């Protein structure tokens, strides 16, 4: 695993070259366009626009549709996207082989976005679950996860995205040791100072991922769960340890997921960054308002429980209050419009 002698944590300022990344390392108390990341599901039918029943108003797109979909959003100020591959025709196996082949629709998507939207910050979710035949986020041996093989494979996937042009790689698998493995791989391929590493550090075994698994077709086959690698819902202490560990292994940014039910963990992420390196160090903390939270807000508003804009803005306000710098949300297109209307409290 050790690939050269530079400590992974040396790659500090250089990983923050992109202007959007620099804005993430500043303290944010205003709702800004820079702080929003829009998740995109990329399928391998290049011309597809597919509805996702459990995620109203969110679609899977083929690579040929991306320019048309994103042009108006970029015009409205979209600064960043995170890409999820949804391979449908690619063969799935234990190793997620297709994740590093041209069968992975994320690769042409990265290249296209780099070409067409030169200022857009491109993040890629790094995981195996959409590419394995069993649907787990790592490699199995005799029915158990094989840690070293899994993190080596995840590092290869992250490296492949980095070489294709991703600015940020974001591993969501939760295998132990993957941050160090990925950081070393990025350094080895010459991307240590070009590609930032955002760790899904505090990712809980949540019931709120259901619609995403529909969208990415990434559920565990046969109905198992991911409790042996995602965090126990009640464990604040384990989440703190995961945050600290990932910072120590060379993560440039950390993430908490889901968002609304885990505001205490967002705050811990902010504080952990400061404690880990004494004075005022700054680990941008991202929060993922996940598919189930999106759907709850959507259905609540649809059924007259609250106004959608007021409810969503309240959820964002809480994220900022807890200490988040970056918010991943399927509501991004709507929020860009709401920011333009300026019809919200500007100081959150
Ligand atoms: C892949 C991954 C998941 C999400 C992001 N990356 C699903 C999971 O871990 O089961 C969930 C995102 C959402 O619910 O919006 N490992």
From TrEMBL:
Active site positions: 203 (schiff-base intermediate with substrate), 257 (schiff-base intermediate with substrate)
Biological process terms in GO annotation: heme biosynthetic process
Family annotation (PANTHER family): DELTA-AMINOLEVULINIC ACID DEHYDRATASE
Domain of life: Eukaryota
NCBIfam families referenced in this protein's UniProt entry, alphabetically: PRK09283.1
Organism of origin: Clydaea vesicula
GO cellular component, one term: cytosol
The protein's name in its UniProt record: Delta-aminolevulinic acid dehydratase
Role: Catalyzes an early step in the biosynthesis of tetrapyrroles. Binds two molecules of 5-aminolevulinate per subunit, each at a distinct site, and catalyzes their condensation to form porphobilinogen.
GO molecular function annotation: porphobilinogen synthase activity; zinc ion binding
UniProt keyword list: Heme biosynthesis, Lyase, Metal-binding, Porphyrin biosynthesis, Zinc
A Pfam family the protein falls into: ALAD
Reactions catalysed according to its record: 2 5-aminolevulinate = porphobilinogen + 2 H2O + H(+)
Family statement: Belongs to the ALAD family.
Listed cofactors: Zn(2+)
